[in-house]
Write a structure and sequence with these properties.
By secondary structure, the chain is an alpha/beta fold. It contains 10 helices and 14 strands.
């Protein structure tokens, strides 16, 4: 870990140096005060980053820490972009050796003029991530969008034909910085009047106390047939340093209590039999099960007592569970609802096509997927973690309409 941090900060420092001299080429007469200010800001961010993660791991929450980290991401992504542009531009010129002899004979070398052009255009290039990431924080973080999806289930009981399921996932309450905007997202969900609501994990980043400020927001999530939830990998407090195992377990107990206080029916390798007009549908929920993450989910336990129910819907946080276990061993699960990926909080949407770098990590990262008779829907997340924003990957409120074939 230490080796990674040294390499990481070295790269950032090089980006700082290259960007500084690039700015000097564009603005050769800027004052010493500007130079001192530039380096003061850089070193505050570079060394402050160590402190930020150390305090976070120790459980100390800094006021405004989410936005401070967002500012760091915006600043250094901009500098790295600018530094790479300068490096490429100068490398090409040195490699080609354009007009070196002629330039040397002039009072103002042409190579210097060309480098200034590279430095100047680099500011415009670096402005792209600066603008996109800044907008992603100021607007994209809470630009909630309703995704409507029709799901055909051939063996769906007639009484459930047309039932509407609202899905939320990956709230990450410890990252929020605009409570009013979050309330607006909940109001959007309730305005859809789903028959039932399913939450597919990650209520917090690390600690149960993160959600306390948002009890009055998420307890307003209501549906006639109930609100059901499962846990995600972040809900187990695995990414923070605890003073003892007892403290960790206390936090986990408080997290479970938070679901109950919200009025959500938490499914821990359990099932609920939903009944309408004498017909039944089994709603299953497992603890987190993901490739490369904690694997606690017990499908056999969750299925107990549902053998006679033909239609089954599974809530499981991590979509990798679908290919790794559900499709291979549990063909009687008709539909699985998951989250986890966030669509990496970044994407590009052109028409009906939506691309995200998440696809390099997850085969199923957002939307509806089908293999044979089984289907999976992956919610792109309601909240955010790390970078406090979203670029081209709006926070999602899902409305699934189940229909018979």
């Amino acid at each position: 870990m230490l080796r990674f941090l040294v390499i990481f900060h070295t790269v950032l420092l090089l980006a700082d140096v290259y960007s500084f001299f690039g700015l000097k080429r564009v603005f050769p007469s800027f004052s010493k005060k500007f130079a001192w200010g530039y380096w003061a800001v850089s070193f505050v961010f570079l060394f402050g980053l160590f402190g930020f993660f150390s305090l976070k791991r120790a459980g100390v929450v800094l006021p405004g820490g989410t936005l401070l980290f967002g500012g760091f991401v915006v600043l250094y992504l901009t500098k790295v972009t600018y530094g790479i542009w300068l490096l490429l531009g100068d490398s090409v010129k040195k490699g080609v050796g354009l007009f070196q002899k002629k330039e040397a004979e002039k009072d103002v070398p042409q190579s210097e003029s060309r480098r200034d052009f590279v430095a100047t255009t680099g500011l415009a290039v670096a402005g792209i991530p600066f603008g996109a990431m800044s907008f992603g924080i100021l607007s994209g973080a809470h630009d909630y969008q309703v995704y409507r999806q029709r799901v055909v289930i051939p063996n769906l009981p007639k009484a459930f034909d047309g039932i509407r399921i609202g899905q939320l996932s990956d709230i990450h309450s410890g990252s929020f910085f605009n409570k009013q905007a979050v309330m607006g997202g909940v109001e959007m969900l309730n305005a859809e009047r789903p028959d039932l609501v399913c939450f597919t994990g990650d209520l917090v980043n690390d600690r149960a106390e993160e959600v306390k400020e948002y009890f009055d927001v998420f307890e307003k999530v209501k549906a006639d047939m109930g609100v059901y939830s499962v846990l995600g990998n972040h809900d187990y407090g695995m990414y923070v340093k605890w003073n003892s195992e007892a403290e960790k377990q206390k936090n986990f107990s408080e997290l479970l209590e938070a679901h109950r206080r919200l009025g959500w029916d938490l499914l821990l390798d359990e099932n609920r039999k939903l009944t309408v007009d004498g017909e039944q549908l089994a709603l299953l929920g497992v603890e987190n099960w993901g490739k490369g993450f904690i694997q606690r989910g017990n499908m056999k336990k969750a299925l107990e007592g549902t053998e006679e129910i033909e239609t089954k819907i599974l809530l499981s946080h991590d979509p990798s569970h679908w290919d790794a276990e559900v499709r291979k061993l549990y063909s009687d699960v008709d539909l699985m609802l998951a989250g986890h990926t966030h669509g990496m909080q970044f994407g590009v949407k052109l028409g009906d096509s939506h691309w995200s770098p998440a696809e390099f990590r997850y085969k199923q990262w957002g939307g509806l997927y089908q293999e044979g008779k089984q289907q999976l829907y992956v919610n792109r997340g309601f909240g955010y973690i790390g970078f406090p924003g979203r670029v081209g990957m709006a926070p999602e409120i899902t409305i699934l309409e189940l229909v018979r074939a």
